[in-house]
Specification:
single chain, alpha/beta, Rossmann fold, 16% strand
């Protein structure tokens, strides 16, 4: 039986979607704790914030301590994410050092940070027989982008892991949701053209709705998902025929 949410744990919420979600949850009277690599601009009696990067060796221990202090984690949302663009034709020809050095960082934050969070939080939810874990992935998880290969690949791993884990956990009363956003007006949206872009507040509203419905996957906006599927179709055909 689903119980009312009273506590939320957010990872990577000092700006962007995570910050908008923090404010939305506090407005609803939900006790919220955030862990992020930067200080939070939020000052509220119902909010506590810890400054730590998900790649920090002490992240797991701090997260475990936060969970013990809360006593109960109804919902955990993994919002942390980074990305960058590369151009091998320009960067390598120019002789720039460490062109691919940052690729590993993208996987460490977007995918391995998620895995580390699940490692600590999910057993607590399973033991309690309740809880909801949400990961913010991307519609880029199905789209081959030579300009940012690490981002799409990390998000593909994230989406696959979340949805597979969702089927494993739901029989124990725990829901896991993979939210695949398109363009959201944050510092992560670096493209020159951003069709169907939504605001961080709109993205937060989608997450809050997911907390009520607890689906396995949400792709938003659906028109962007359909557009990316059509754009990626020729590439999928070429790969299949190669």
């Amino acid at each position: 039986m689903q119980t009312a949410m009273t506590t939320a744990l957010l990872i990577g919420n000092s700006d962007g979607i995570g910050l908008a979600l923090t404010r939305a949850l506090l407005d609803r009277g939900i006790t919220t704790v955030g862990l992020s690599r930067s200080p939070s601009p939020v000052h509220h009696e119902g909010y506590r914030h810890h400054v730590i990067d998900v790649t920090d060796p002490g992240f797991r221990d701090l997260l475990a301590g936060v969970c013990r202090d809360l006593g109960r984690v109804d919902t955990c949302v993994y919002c942390a994410g980074i990305g960058h663009e590369i151009d091998l034709d320009i960067d390598l020809v120019a002789g720039l050092p460490g062109v691919l050095d940052r690729e590993r960082d993208v996987f460490e934050v977007n995918l391995m940070g998620l895995v580390a969070t699940i490692e600590i939080v999910l057993p607590l939810m399973l033991a309690a027989g309740r809880g909801h874990f949400i990961g913010l992935s991307s519609l880029a998880d199905r789209f081959c982008n030579p300009g940012a290969p690490s981002y799409g690949a990390a998000k593909a791993g994230m989406s696959s892991y979340l949805e597979s884990m969702a089927f494993a956990a739901r029989k124990r009363g725990v829901a896991i949701t993979n939210i695949r956003f398109g363009f959201v007006a944050t510092k992560m949206a670096k493209a020159d053209t951003k069709p169907f872009e939504i605001s961080a507040d709109q993205a937060a509203a989608v997450i809050v709705a997911c907390m009520r419905k607890r689906p396995i996957r949400v792709s938003h906006p659906w028109r962007m998902a359909a557009l990316l599927w059509m754009v990626g179709l020729p590439a999928r055909i070429r790969i299949a025929l190669s």
